């Protein structure tokens, strides 16, 4: 089944969508990473509402050597230890922001990286922020997604809820089959198949050969 389509200038989904309740989020990192594929990411930023369908995630479960929580709780990674459904925002490569979701019980450090989304609303604002016209490039990759959706440190530690300016929603979309692969851009524990994505989506990041690989 193909991904749903809306007008590139349509911002109405950000207004009509109902947020996911906290208890709808699976209390398990792998399960949450799969669950989020096909769900809606909604952001109310300085330029108005923006929406996108999440098409790619990566899981960083408890005990994972690639997870920022591997050495224990610090001031930087404290949001990973919050109950599931909180934002963990950090800067990678000195410039790119990354958007994550805490995924376990209070005190257990783990999270899901939101890697890519299909933009559906607020695209004019995303284009201005990203400086590109091609809609396929607006939120394709975690750094691009964070820039398009105006993700900053002000969101770190906040619960995904409308009052925080960023939230998750389910619009009833019937998901396509979810594929999996090894994770991208890491060196620790790199071969674990904890990256989840819609194989047919042009908004998914990563090399084509990896996205065609058997799940």
Q: What structural class should be given to the helix and strand makeup?
A: alpha+beta
Mean pLDDT: 89
Radius of gyration: 16 Å
The main pleated sheet reads as:
8 strands, antiparallel
Elements, N to C (H/E): HHEEEEEHHEEEH
Low-confidence stretches: 1-15
Hey, roughly how much beta strand do the residues contain? 25-35%
Q: Tell me roughly what share of residues is in helical segments.
A: 10-25%
Shape: globular
Specify the CATH homologous superfamily.
Methylpurine-DNA glycosylase (MPG)
Counting structural domains, the number is: 1
Task: Describe this entry's structure for a reader.
The chain has 5 helices and 8 strands. By secondary structure, the protein is α+β, with helices and mostly antiparallel strands. It has a single domain (25-207), classed as Roll (3-methyladenine DNA Glycosylase, Chain A). 15% of the residues lie in helices and 26% in strands. Residues 1-15 have low confidence and may be disordered. Strands 1, 2, 3, 4, 5, 6, 7 and 8 form an 8-stranded antiparallel beta sheet that branches.
């Amino acid at each position: 089944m193909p991904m749903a389509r809306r007008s590139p200038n349509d911002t109405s989904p950000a207004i009509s969508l109902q947020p996911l309740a906290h208890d709808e989020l699976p209390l398990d990192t792998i399960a949450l990473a799969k669950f989020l594929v096909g769900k809606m990411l909604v952001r109310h930023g300085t330029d108005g509402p923006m929406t996108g369908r999440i098409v790619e995630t990566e899981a960083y479960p408890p005990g994972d050597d690639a997870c920022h929580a591997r050495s224990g709780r610090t001031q930087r990674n404290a949001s990973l230890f919050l109950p599931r459904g909180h934002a963990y925002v950090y800067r990678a490569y000195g410039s790119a922001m990354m958007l994550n979701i805490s995924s376990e019980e209070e005190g257990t450090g783990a999270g899901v990286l939101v890697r890519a989304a299909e933009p559906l609303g607020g695209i004019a604002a995303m284009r201005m922020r990203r400086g590109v016209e091609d809609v396929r490039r607006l939120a394709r990759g975690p750094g691009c997604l964070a820039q398009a959706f105006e993700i900053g440190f002000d969101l770190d530690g906040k619960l995904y809820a409308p009052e925080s300016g960023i939230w998750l929603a389910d619009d009833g979309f019937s998901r396509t089959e979810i594929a999996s692969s090894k994770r991208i851009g890491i060196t620790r524990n790199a071969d674990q198949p904890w990256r989840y994505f819609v194989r047919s989506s042009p908004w998914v990041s990563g090399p084509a050969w990896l996205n065609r690989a058997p799940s």
